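so my prof wants the structure for this chain in the tokens format not the other one, which i didnt know existed until like an hour ago. anyway here's the sequence
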Amino acid sequence: MPVRTPDDLTAAVLAEVARAPDARTRELLGLAVGHLHAFVREARLTEAEFQQVCGWVAQLGQLTTASHNEVVLAAGSLGVSALVCLINNGQGGTAPTTANLMGPFWRDGSPATANGGSLVRTPGTPGEPVYVDAWVVDAQGLPVEGARVDVWHTSAEGFYENQDPAQADMNLRGQFQTDAQGHVWFQSVKPAGYPIPLSGPVGALLRAQGRHNMRPAHIHFLIHKAGYKSQFSQVYSADDPFLGTDVQFGVTEALSGHYRRHEAGEPPPFGQPPAPGQAWYSLEHRFVLDSGEARLPKAPISGKAEGARPVRQILERRGD
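here's what i got, hopefully its the right format
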């Protein structure tokens, strides 16, 4: 029957969605169509606005490359990534969890590194040394042995190696394995908070809201072992000025870490000592895994940017 009214149109689309043989596909598409059509009605979306939105969606794909994922960046900036994480962990969002959003900068295939080793692969990488001890346990508090633990973070200048042609491939990235105590340990340089890129639709979105584009300093972890739900996590520096206004909405109490400062001359717990006269930091954190499927998603990036180092742009948060 020909469409006569907006309600006829929505009903026609939903009738076609109902033809999908898979029950979950029918549910997801039905909800998506229902909410999307309701949004168009409630917002009274104009044709010009619709064309603008289509342009933004197209740009998300066009700007996603081997070294940059604008789609994941947008999902984080709207709180979708953090929401999906929270409702799928911590007993459906009712209990604390050490799970966190994956983010757009995980690369698969980080170099296998022995416990106690260093993530610094570019000689002369600037920054204050940090010595990290992490423990992985199950829901009963028992150590998880033999888990794969990927680690990655920014430089002290606020660049991931994939963004920065000056850094060696896989600098400040490594892959470890937990010992019988569920323990991994490594040394690196203390990461800095950083501005997310503003060159695409995400930048326009933040400017339209009067938001800043800063993430607080953090170290990423991915923990993976058969029999346990794979966990992405980030441990944030509790003294970072952007802890409460993270542009990606990722900070939780369970992941606010204490990066403890040690004065020069105090011996580190392992590894290479700092340079003479140099202070250093330590970090200890425990991650709790739930039983479940060990599954890794496709990594959002797979390579490094070429050309000049990107120029950092920082937006002010309006009203502060």
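also thought this was worth mentioning. The helical segments are 6-17, 23-43, 47-62, 70-77, 80-87, 90-93, 201-209.
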